[in-house]
Write a structure and sequence with these properties.
Helices cover 9% and strands 34% of the residues. With 611 residues, the chain is mainly beta. It folds into three domains: 13-181 and 282-414, no CATH class; 184-191 and 200-247 and 265-276, no CATH class; 426-584, no CATH class. Strands 20, 21, 26, 29, 30 and 31 form a six-stranded antiparallel beta sheet that branches. A hairpin with a 4-residue loop joins strand 12 (322-331) and strand 13 (336-346). Helix 5 (232-244) crosses helix 7. It is globular. It starts with 12 loop residues before the first helix and ends in a 27-residue tail after the last strand.
């Protein structure tokens, strides 16, 4: 959040020394910095708790359609991160929690991290991280509000199931969030109760009705908003925008002496005048933080916004409500480039907490053409996000001022990448069974970050990845075709022939939809169509970036080598190969045996040792 200019804190020589020797100091004394309360820990030598000179969490929010928590991390210094861009650097660890009782108890949601380095930059760099969460969806008749927490800790991961942990370097943020309800109502819930009995024998009252198709009851909203003393032009704004988008109706208005919105009572001329005089109003919503989320496939441009009022969002959870639109821009030195539009759905919630609800928005983008190898130095970009309620900010208008909403600016740094080869398909395997290839040992093929060291894979191997520079399939251009190949010896490869289902996510006009899953059945030669399409107006993304599945049961071979092969659509005789990933496979179920030290058939007592 940069509504106020960022001022870098001065780091003393003593603090810098403690930072650079942090790992060594806590190995010698886990409580060297006094951040571990309770008996049993050694005495603190130098107390440092929650220091934010180097990094801090800015905002935390939920994208309810995806059940994704997103947090913004600020990198405040240009050194103190254990190495240059071409080194391993260090990790900013973030652990997430959810509370279903407003903070009395907490449920650990998992740990993620962000790789950071020593790089020269003005101001601060702003990143984003995410954590998928499992929040059940209930009826729209009652708001399911939760309290989320994120704990940032540099250099050492916050321990699991420790929601009150205080980091040495980092901080803790909380935010109230609102879960998305079930997106349907039973027919009997929307029919007037006075006629339910009369129609019960004529229609199925248990028929599910999608809430998105229910019309907005503006008459009821007008009365409710008047009682809440909300300005009439807030309610009227979506109606005015709809009218302005229909030239025929606008022309008809010119012949009318006086116009009204049907049964609505507000004054047309005063409403229009109020809208014209409203510029960047943040009474109802405000974009507070933005950042870049580095990912193995598509990076995400992320924003966290706050909904501040209980009413003013065009309906409750049992209606389609309204959209908070955010358009993102990046500037690599040649001016602002429109990266696209996204949004999140919001509603009127009478039980709004005092601090409001925090929502996250994100836009997947392919930034590979701008990335460079680390030896060529860091690549920076200015980032801008424009929030606009109900009406999308117009494309290619970076200086647009919304009626309801605001603009945020920051600076981001891209992760290093290969030299741009945007003229050809660029296949890449990025994960196996949800585990990043960075966490798979290249020689042993086992996980290096597992709870048990050298953990192997087994059974069905779900393979994720991405093909850069794919064509605009929604325009009618032929889709790319690819196949996954596998080998049990690293020399001879065969096509993967297993069918599987893909969950798709589509973004059109800034609004997310979720079409029916697609069954991918490889042809005889193993090739299948690539479903991802990054070109607007209809963008299609694949959930978890799944490319295919390899079933390994019944084959005792200890290893699998995996690769992807893509056909050039302009030259079918030319194919492009991805990286090759080696994984260890062990399909034998674990067994346990117990030998009693006391001998067979002997009696044992509580406390006796057994092996």
């Amino acid at each position: 959040m940069q509504n106020q200019p960022f001022k870098r804190q001065v780091v003393s020589a003593e603090l810098s020394k403690l930072r650079s020797h942090f790992q060594t100091l806590i190995v010698g004394n886990a409580n060297y910095f006094g951040h571990l309360p309770g008996a049993g820990f050694p005495k603190a030598v130098q107390k440092i708790q929650g220091n934010t000179h180097y990094e801090n969490l800015g905002c935390l929010g939920l994208q309810p359609q995806f059940n994704l928590l997103k947090a913004i991390v600020y990198i405040n210094q240009d050194s103190g991160y254990s190495g240059s861009l071409c080194s391993a650097g260090s990790q900013e660890y973030i652990r997430f929690y959810l509370s279903f009782d407003d903070g009395s108890t907490w449920v650990d949601q998992g740990l993620t991290s962000l790789n950071v380095h020593d790089v020269k930059h003005e101001g601060r760099l702003e990143y984003a991280v995410e954590m998928p969460v499992d929040i059940k969806r209930y009826s729209c008749k009652k708001a399911n509000q939760l309290l989320a927490r994120a704990i940032l800790s540099w250099g050492v991961a916050p321990p699991a199931n420790t929601p009150h942990y205080t980091p040495v370097w980092g901080n803790v943020v909380n935010a109230h969030i609102l879960a998305q309800p079930v997106q349907s109502l039973l027919l009997k819930d929307v029919i007037d109760s006075a006629i339910l009995k009369d129609v019960s024998e004529l229609i199925d009252l248990d028929l599910k009705i999608p809430t998105a198709v229910l019309p907005v009851n503006y008459v009821a909203l007008e009365q409710s908003y008047q009682e809440a003393q909300l300005a009439p032009h807030r309610l009227a704004y979506p109606l005015v925008q709809t009218l302005m988008a229909q030239p025929a109706q606008l022309s008809a208005l010119q012949a009318q002496v006086k116009h009204s919105f049907g049964p609505l009572k507000f004054d047309w001329s005063k409403v229009v005048e109020s809208i014209a005089n409203t510029d960047g109003n943040i009474d109802f919503e405000e974009l507070n933080c933005i950042g870049l989320q580095p990912r193995a496939t598509l990076d995400h441009l992320v924003g966290v916004l706050k909904v501040k009022k209980s009413q003013g969002y065009s309906g409750n959870l049992c209606t389609k409500g309204s959209q908070e639109y955010v358009r993102f821009y990046l500037d690599f030195g040649a001016g602002w480039q429109d990266m696209g539009l996204t949004s999140v759905q919001v509603h009127d919630i009478n039980s709004l907490p005092k601090d409001g609800f925090n929502y996250a928005v994100f836009l997947p983008v392919d930034l590979s053409q701008y990335k460079k190898p680390c030896k060529q130095g860091p690549v920076y970009a200015k980032m801008r996000a424009i929030l606009s309620w109900s009406s999308p900010p117009p494309a290619n208008t970076p200086d647009y001022k919304p009626v309801w909403g605001n603009t945020e600016n920051t600076t981001v740094m891209l992760t290093p990448g290969m030299i741009d080869q945007s003229w050809k398909p660029a296949p890449m395997i990025t994960a196996v069974c949800g585990q990043s290839i960075a966490d798979i040992h290249p020689t042993t093929g086992t996980l290096t970050n597992a709870a048990f060291s050298d953990a192997p894979f087994g059974n069905s191997l779900w393979i994720s990845g991405h093909i850069g520079n794919a064509p605009d399939a929604s325009s009618g251009v032929a889709k790319l075709k690819y196949r996954l190949n596998y080998s049990t010896d690293g020399i001879t490869f065969k096509p993967v022939a297993n069918a599987f289902k893909l969950a798709l996510e589509q973004l059109s006009g800034g609004t997310w939809t979720f079409p029916a899953p697609v069954t991918q059945a490889p042809l005889a030669d193993g090739y299948i169509e690539y479903q991802e399409d990054l070109v607007a107006p209809l963008q299609t993304f694949v959930n978890l970036d799944i490319l295919g599945v390899l079933h390994t049961a019944g084959d005792a071979s200890p290893y699998r080598w995996l690769q992807m092969e893509v056909v050039d659509p302009l030259n079918p005789a030319t194919t492009y190969l991805s990286n090759t990933i080696k994984v260890r496979v062990d399909n034998a179920a674990p067994t346990a045996s117990i030998t009693m030290d006391q001998g067979p058939c002997s009696d044992i007592k509580v406390g006796d040792a057994i092996t």
